[in-house]
């Protein structure tokens, strides 16, 4: 772990409108927080946020734990941050909201473990770029334990993102991709790299700790354990580490089966949602949304399993749903081993992917460059092509994708494709052109086209429309309640195929079980995507009516351990109802109160006692009209 630790305690003075003040100190302890934090305190002020800033200036050993809050000890500090001047006494303050800030290349070094507790927020500094971009890299031999929960997910986002006010993210201009680089985990599981090891994509040549794979003479470790990433939302990523070489929301290099990637969201990325460079790591319950490039990118001989994946692309940007290569280089300049082995024979099942068919290269799935993957029981809609097969090889000793298909190493089985091409009702089923459901590249002879047609249409089906609910255009701007990933029926669906050993039982097509899951209650309900865009889900901080009613509005404490106090002045009298709801939209507590426009501050008390720890939403409505007044994200702990 990079060990220069700069701490800034930022204080806001409630109700006085004063600027936040920042003071810093430095510690180089092996994972321990310093005993003293420099603060600013006034007679009416209380500390509301601690920022712990990691920079790439030193390295050390030990286990480091990041938490949602810190307890600030009582202390006497320099009032102006200058020694010898006036001092103030700062009382002890418990549970101060904490942000863990990445400023530059921050490493978890070999032998070390970084633990991030549920509910923690990690910020990536946005001011740097290139070699000064902010990225968290878990090196070979290190581990990250970022093990959140559905009600207390871990959030990794750009610095300054007010995660308690998600309304800004409904507009891409105020919550853009490219804020910071992303999360990288590196290992020494098998790949098909000819060199055995290399720097992760985009890393400058002097960042040797960013190497993955196996050094010459060493034996790859298929069971490599890079840690746990579970219930983690990764946002606003993709900043380039060098020219035209951006990182993804999550980048995995040669990670093994001991690494757990489960219930992860990658949203608003300037490059891919996730890219997997070789390895054997298994992935489940992964969401990619609003991605500038490809949502699911796999290459370099990855041979794991991936199941229950949801993808939802921009309609005005974004490339492919799935870009699956055997080699991540071009056809003519391979960087794989001489025979391309181990082949990239990763297995996918139960995907639901909504693409960007307005872009000419928005294939739902493309396999190329010695790819030999298999996809089963999945739904792909809104794309320029449903499935595109490459037709060339990187060398005479490496099979083509068609060779893999004929040899039963590459397969597309029991999948539903819909809304493909510019005119879905007349899209050719099979062809070599850019507008077909199933496309084979190059100029293959007719017998090859015939074989391709037979193999690729044997178990897959196509429908022009009517599979999922999503807006045809303006997908992002449309806001909440416009996307339902649960199919409305199974007419025209293929038969459900049998899954190989190692996959979870799932007797349905797509990422969700229509018999037990709904738009407002499913395995992805904890995600930012679900809480802002999926039909029936609560909409944090969507406040279209608030300016009509509120002159001022505050609520707290947040996080809360019991009662929530809402203090407000209203511009016009209103009979209001305040509901406390969970992440699935279920109303748990209700308080009604008539608010009078008399220029006085009125207080509404909402009881959260007895509720479990986690994330909730405090929603207010006009009881007479049903209009939404305001929704706020509340953390109970």
Shape: globular
Q: Strand count, sense and closure of the main sheet?
A: 20 strands, mixed
The low-pLDDT segments are 1-46, 165-171, 476-480, 537-548
User: Which percent range fits the helix content?
Assistant: under 10%
Secondary structure layout:
Elements: E1 2-12, E2 24-27, E3 46-59, E4 63-66, E5 69-72, E6 75-78, E7 87-90, E8 93-103, E9 105-108, E10 113-116, E11 121-124, E12 135-138, E13 143-147, E14 154-158, E15 182-186, E16 197-199, E17 211-213, E18 227-237, E19 240-242, E20 245-246, E21 250-253, E22 260-269, E23 274-277, E24 282-291, E25 296-299, E26 305-312, E27 322-325, E28 347-354, E29 365-368, E30 374-376, E31 379-383, E32 387-389, H1 401-406, E33 411-413, E34 416-420, E35 430-431, E36 438-440, H2 446-457, E37 461-463, H3 528-533, H4 546-549, E38 550-556, E39 563-570, E40 574-581, E41 587-595, E42 602-607, E43 614-622, E44 628-636
Parallel strand pairs: 3-8, 4-10, 8-11, 9-12, 10-13, 11-14, 12-15, 13-18, 14-18, 15-21, 18-22, 21-23, 22-24, 23-25, 24-26, 25-27, 26-28, 27-29, 28-30, 28-31, 29-32, 30-33, 31-34, 32-36, 34-37, 35-36
Antiparallel strand pairs: 1-2, 1-3, 5-8, 6-7, 16-17, 19-20, 38-39, 39-42, 40-41, 40-43, 43-44
Summarize it:
The protein is mainly β and 637 residues long.
Descriptive keywords:
20-stranded mixed β-sheet, 4 helices, 4% helix, disordered N terminus, mainly beta, 637 residues, eleven-stranded parallel β-sheet
Characterize the structure shown.
The chain has a 20-stranded mixed beta sheet that branches. It has 637 residues and is mainly beta. The chain is 4% helix and 39% strand. The two termini are 29 Å apart.
